[in-house]
Amino acid sequence: MSAASAARKRGKPASGAGAAAGAGKRRRKADSAGDRGKTKGGGKMNEEISSDSESESLAPKRTEEEEEEELEETVQEKKLRLAKLYLEQLRQQEEEKAEAREFEEDQVAGRLKEDVLEQRGRLQKSVAKEIQAPAPTDIRVLRGHQLSITCLVITPDDLAIFSAAKDCTIIKWSVESGRKLHVIPRAKKGAEGQPPGHSSHILCMAISSDGKYLASGDCSKLILIWEAQSCRHLYTFTGHRDAVSGLAFRRGTHQLYSTSHDRSVKVWNVEENSYVETLFGHQDAVAALDALSRECCVTAGGRDGTVRVWKIPEESQLVFYGHQGSIDCIHLINEEHMVSGADDGSVALWGLSKKRPLALQREAHGVQGEPGLEQPFWVSSVAALLNTDLVATGSHNSCVRLWQCGEGFRRLDPLCDIPLMGFINSLKFSSAGDFLVAGVGQEHRLGRWWRIKEARNSVCIIPLRRVPGPPVAGS
């Protein structure tokens, strides 16, 4: 038996490698036993230390897990994730586009609704309450005519004014500078080789909606057609048997309507230099005429006391009654409503579906004369800002009066007075509504019943400034 085996039997440690291995085993056992003893003896402290160590190690473990997930994500999973992100972006973009489209559609719908109302003649923009009365020093006075102004028109671009007077001249004015751009002088009767022009009082004018043609009518039964830009004479229309008292172009066309003291209404085609037809119906001299886009026109019948709407294609007419005196002026507010003035001092609002006025304002400019013998101031001119509730009237009581049309054109409320001395023979609003032009004379445009010596024969440009309305609640 060897020495090593004998030693194992006796339980003694062997020398050399075997002994070293035995010692290592004993140390590991002792260490593990010591650990168990520590756990049993100091459990509470060990739990706290263990808890802290676990919480400190959580964050890095999650990060490692996420990194492992990213590393473990396959190509197909990455494609799916990116596709979902892309689809979410597309969804958000489409929602934004839908909101923008809905907003634009609301705007377009509002504009279309407004256009439809305008075509039907029922549009009524509320601007009258925003108008601020101008100071007398803000009114610009343009002087050039020797006798009373009888009529005027404003070019569609609001850059120029044409005025005509009893001195038989036509002057083109610059709105911005107030200077004369052109003068069409009076023509002498019977003289040959002279420039074309009027030889008698000019009573009416009209300009086409494209600003190409200007028409003027006089007491010599003539209608002269001019090129508005250069004031070059183009044609002369003859056919009326008395003074031409009213002219109007149909909007958007070169169709011209004219009326006369011969009680007729005539239709002309200016572009083709041709006569179309004649309509009869008034029982006395016709004093004024107006027209808009529809193929019809309205006339003020003077002393026959009627307002008439002429339907040109049907060659028929509607007759309206309401004023007690001679109806001397008329103006369309829109395609369905109009305003008229008479020498009984009244101003009337009309709807084309009613034969009686929707509103009638008597003594619109007050009365004159001794107590007990008072007479109303004649209404010599009316104007309306197209498709709005703003109306202006003129007389010879030293002012132009602005009015507001009530809801449904069933009321006429005074807004303010603009001081102007003389007969207000013509009134016109600019297309944008930022100024009003008045033709002022010492005499009435149709006669010489009175003469106001203090007045000046002039064209007055009245600025119309708008006061911003109150803010809307919640805006």
Please characterize this protein's 3D structure:
The protein is α+β, with helices and mostly antiparallel strands. The protein contains 4 helices and 32 strands. The protein has a 4-stranded antiparallel β-sheet, with no helix packed on it. A 4-stranded antiparallel β-sheet has the order 3-4-5-6, with no helix packed on it. It has a 4-stranded antiparallel β-sheet with strand order 7-8-9-10, with no helix packed on it. A hairpin with a 4-residue loop joins β15 (288-291) and β16. It is elongated and about 110 Å long. The N and C termini lie far apart (113 Å).
Strands of the widest sheet, in order across it, are 2-31-30-29
Q: Alpha-carbon distance between the termini?
A: 113 Å
**Please, what is the average pLDDT?**
83
- What class do helices, strands and sheet pairing give? alpha+beta
Query: What would the principal axes of the Cα set say about the shape?
Result: elongated
Largest sheet composition: 4 strands, antiparallel
Q: Extract low-pLDDT stretches.
A: 1-61, 471-475
How many E-type strands?
32
